[in-house]
Each structure stands twice: as structure tokens, then as C-alpha cells.
Amino acid sequence: MLKQYTFKELSTSALTALVTRNADDTHAIQDVVQQIIADVRQDGDTALLSFASKFDKVDLEKLYLDKADIEELAMTITRDQQRALEIAFQNIHKFHSSQMRRERTVETMPGVKCWREPRPIERVGLYIPGGSAVLPSTLLMLGVPARISGCKEIVVCSPPQQSGKINGFVAYCLQLLKIDRIYLAGGAQAIAAMAFGTDTIPKVDKIFGPGNQFVTKAKSVVQSMTNVSIDMPAGPSEVLVIADETANPAYVAADLLAQAEHGPDSQAVLVCTSDTILAAVDSKLEEQLQILPRAEIAKMAIANSYAVKVDDLQEAMQFSNQYAPEHLILETDQWESLTRYISNAGSVFLGHLTPESAGDYASGTNHTLPTSGYARSYSGVSVDSFVKKITFQHINAEGLNHIGSTVEILAELEGLHAHKNAVSVRK
Ligand code: NAD
């Protein structure tokens, strides 16, 4: 089922081509996205209503749902489903709360004190995907750290469903997060609306959230057009599984398919030291695909995926670090000794009993993660993503005495005499 390559036989260029994904070389996505952004800037809400009709196949009367609608929708889910969302909420809250550590004040010289304090970003925009699958889990992953950070205004956008509303799970998550309004806009148009503002949707300072290629491209385009920033490029999902002869082929296949069912552009990569396991995973993929409701989507993603045969786990890590996966799963007894060799990955799942699904939903870590190789330089969403860290300093007479001449000399050598004078007048 999976195309197969042998690591040792890959030339440098073949390796580079293999680890490159979602390149949009023809700018096809960019062109579509730029037109959508231009339309939203020009026609605001009217453009949003027309895109909802075109892409989401729904004619909306208004572009948002309020508290009463949200309450009504939230009541449509069962108590067991509510309980599962509450447990996920609590675990995500527990894990992210630990990120609110206060940094200590540092006295760099006697009388010269420096420190940093976080301040919430005031207006944040959360994009909750809702094209091929609605992801209430993403609302928790973004909403919880936004609440912990103390952001004042939380704007949530998600594509409208066929009913012209959102589903009950998203509604219940909105209640858990104490968010009273959701805007019914999806795709690049939602990102444009949050970046520029429309009559209905407020402009925000930073946009968060994963999405398909249109959403991801729109985030990078609006970032270059306005002073709005983004969390990271979090595009079509991907997993890389490293397996050796100790791996259970059924678990490996299940993990690959869990990724593949996200969308046809998702990628599931298996890096394996054993031919026997490779063959067994292939047959488990066939078997498990039979019973998946989203088998058609998963098959397309599997066609866009591959396996790499390696000689040993060191070689596996070499490939993985080059790929820089959003999700990395180590299905080997050796996971403990392997973790120190990981240099590029969004989120890592260790051992045979840690499925990625646990982190996708409920273990506590964030599932909004860098894709397409951006794990080389970006981290996943955390409380830090929702704050600015402002530096402070205070210098007293003793401090000025210690640091004054250093600053004067440095200012003079750069030819900035006003800088020098700002110290000299105080001495
Ligand atoms: P989505 O909400 O991202 O996109 C749906 C919207 O795309 C539609 O409302 C429509 O406006 C727009 N669209 C669809 N076809 C279009 C076209 N031809 N032209 C212009 N716009 C169009 O939902 P989705 O499509 O289901 O994608 C969700 C994505 O999020 C998946 O690729 C999944 O892998 C990814 N994801 C990533 C992470 C991460 O952390 N990286 C986490 C969860 C999900």
C-alpha cells in the first residue's frame, strides 16, 4: 500500500524532494487566497455571506450565533459527550497552567535590575476548522491557553455547517470557555475578516488555528499585509512513525490511518528498520481501512504517503529530523534512549501505548502544531503564544555609576552622541 524508499539509496536531492510538502509551487492556492482577501476587504460581510454560499453551500441570515443559540445547541449532546469534553478541558487546562511561570529579576550589575513580565495579547482570533470534519478539540486547544493568558477579546470563527449553525460539541466547548459568540465564517475569508475587520467580525491582533491549505496560506498572506501576527503555519496534518522489530503492526497502521483520515492532503510516513514489520503494517492498513467511515479520504492521503526503510534507529532519526514532522511517534522499546536525538518535531509520542490521538484530544498537550517542515523553527501553540513578554529595567545611582561609562563609550563609538548624553546628564 505504502510507496517504499530505502534511506541509503536516496540522493540528497531525492531526500529533499521527499521531505518537501505543500509547496504550492504554481501559486495556485496563493492566487485563490489573494482574490478572497481582496473581496473581503472590499465587500466585508457581503463577501463573507457569498463565500458561505459558494464554499460551505449554505445561505446564512446572519454571520454569528449568540449565547441563546449556543445554549440551545450545547443541549443537543449527551452527558457522556459533555463529560469527555470536560475531561479534555481540564487536562489541557492543567498542562497549560504550568506554563505561567514568573521569571526572576536579574541584577546584571549592582543597581542594574532587569526582568520580563508577560501581558496578554488583547484581541485574539481563533480559527476552528470545519470543512471535512468539525474540530471542537481545536477550540479547546486554542481557547484554554487564551483564557489562561487573560486575553480580553476572543473572536472565534468556524465554517457554518449545512444547518447554517455549528455543531453541539463546538457549542459546549464555547460554554466551557465562557465565550458567548461565534462567527460563521470559514477558509481564507475568515482569516481576512479577522485580519482587517468587517462590520460584523472584529479585527484582532493575532490569528491562531490550523486549517487546510487555503487557511494556512491566508494566514501568511495577511501577516505580510497588516500588523496582525499569526501563531504559525499549521496546515495539513502529518505524522511520522518510527518503528523497529518491537513495534506492533496493528498499532502502527492505526496511527498512520488516524492521520490519513484528516484529509487527502494529510501525510503519514513510516520509517522502519524491519522488512517484516513493513509488510505486516501494509496488510494491517488494508484490513483497518475496510472499517473506516472516512476510508476514501484516508486512501487518498495514503497515496500521498510513503515508507522509508532504514538500517537502524539512528538512521531513522536522521530522516525524521530532516522531515521535521508535526507529530512523531516512537514505536520501539528503545524510545527512552532515542528521545535525545530528536531535534525537529512538533509533538512527540513515546512507546507502544501512546497514540497520537491522546494528544489530539485529551492528554493535555496542544494539538495546534507546525506542519510542512516548520517544526524546524516553530513551536506548537502554548500559553506563550497568547502573551507578549515585556522587558523592564530599573537603574539606581549605584547602577548608573557601574554601567554609565560603558554605555557612554559604546554610544560614542557608534557616533550617537545624544545617546551618550542621556547618560552623562544623569551622572
Ligand atoms: P477548514 O476549516 O480548514 O477549511 C474549510 C474551508 O475551506 C471552507 O469553509 C471553505 O471556505 C474553504 N475552501 C474549501 N475549498 C475551497 C476552494 N476550492 N477554494 C477556496 N476556499 C476553499 O477545514 P478542512 O478543509 O477540513 O481542513 C482542516 C485542516 O486542518 C486539515 O488539513 C487538517 O489536517 C488540518 N489540521 C491541522 C492541525 C495542525 O495543528 N497543524 C490540527 C488540526 C487540523
Automatic annotation (TrEMBL):
Kindly tell me the pathway this chain contributes to. Amino-acid biosynthesis; L-histidine biosynthesis; L-histidine from 5-phospho-alpha-D-ribose 1-diphosphate: step 9/9
Cofactor(s) recorded for this entry are: Zn(2+)
- Reactions catalysed, as given in the entry: L-histidinol + 2 NAD(+) + H2O = L-histidine + 2 NADH + 3 H(+)
Positions that bind substrate: S237, Q259, H262, H327, D360, E414, H419
Cofactor: binding comment: Binds 1 zinc ion per subunit.
Record InterPro entries: Ald_DH/histidinol_DH, Histidinol_DH_CS, Histidinol_DH_monofunct, Hstdl_DH
Listed GO MF terms: histidinol dehydrogenase activity; NAD binding; zinc ion binding
User: Where are the active-site residues found?
Assistant: E326 (proton acceptor), H327 (proton acceptor)
Give the GO cellular component terms, alphabetically.
cytosol
Q: Which UniProt keywords apply?
A: Amino-acid biosynthesis, Histidine biosynthesis, Metal-binding, NAD, Oxidoreductase, Zinc
Task: Quote the record's binding site residues for NAD(+).
Answer: Y127, Q189, N212
Binding site residues for Zn(2+): Q259, H262, D360, H419
Known EC number: 1.1.1.23
Record's family? Answer: Belongs to the histidinol dehydrogenase family.
Task: State what this protein does.
Answer: Catalyzes the sequential NAD-dependent oxidations of L-histidinol to L-histidinaldehyde and then to L-histidine.
Quote the protein name from its UniProt record.
Histidinol dehydrogenase
Native species of this protein? Sphingobacterium deserti
